[in-house]
Amino acid sequence: MTKLKLLGIALFTLMTLLTTPVFAQEPIHINDATAESLATLPGIGEVKAQAIVDDRKANGDFKSVEDLSRVKGIGDATVAKLADSATL
């Protein structure tokens, strides 16, 4: 094969990899996750993640993802964003 053809194949492969959608990560278990893991959820940063852990320690496990709304700073809009990425 010529160098030009190899370069073309390499560029095609690279472009294919860069434009392929990234597969979604497994849902995070809110009753077991660390603050670091929780911070990766959409709409949850480090401060809210720590608030979730603190609330969980103080009040026990969440019975549903919707129960996250009991944490200060987490409302219905944030809970709605978590539908596919958080679980029990």
Report how far the terminal alpha carbons are from each other. 54 Å
Which second-level CATH architecture of the domain at 27-87 applies? Orthogonal Bundle
Helix content: 40-55%
Number of helices: 4
Number of strands: 2
Overview of this protein structure:
It is a single chain. By secondary structure, the chain is mainly α. It contains four helices and two strands. The mean pLDDT is 86. Keywords: Signal.
Task: Please give the structural blueprint.
Layout: H1 3-19, E1 28-29, H2 35-38, H3 46-59, H4 76-81, E2 86-87
Parallel strand pairs: 1-2
Main features:
single chain, DNA polymerase, domain 1, two-stranded parallel sheet, 4 helices, 47% helix, RuvA_2-like, Endo/Exo/Phosphatase_dom_1, Competence_ComEA_HhH
